[in-house]
Specification:
Elements: H1 3-38, H2 45-65, H3 73-106
Length: about 110
């Protein structure tokens, strides 16, 4: 197989893995925001932190894969999207916690 094709295949596989983690993080964030607005139970903390941990590990593996070669732009963009999804989920988790504490103080 031509090295360039293999390089593109690896990048496509990494892009799919990163996209899957991004989707999971976004789904959890949506569930968390819905819970905050409706007063329903949020996603379990184990689900939230497992998703964050798994996404972090996959990002590190992808970065390590390109230690001595140029990372394709689409993989770099996927890493950025996962980073944004992780950050958004972290902010939403902090907001949910603050709202929960505020409500329990007045309830």
């Amino acid at each position: 197989m031509h090295p360039l094709l293999d390089y593109e295949e690896v990048g496509a596989g990494q892009s799919a893995r990163l996209g899957s983690h991004e989707a999971e993080l976004n789904q959890i964030e949506t569930a968390l925001l819905t819970a905050a607005k409706s007063g329903k139970s949020p996603p379990s903390s184990s689900r939230v932190f497992r998703a964050l941990s798994d996404a972090s590990i996959v990002c590190a593996e992808v970065i390590d894969e390109y230690a001595d070669k140029t990372m394709p732009r689409f993989v770099r963009n996927d890493l950025s999207r996962v980073h944004c999804a992780m950050t958004d989920l972290g902010v939403s988790l902090a907001s949910y916690s603050a709202l929960s504490l505020k409500e329990s103080s007045f309830g």
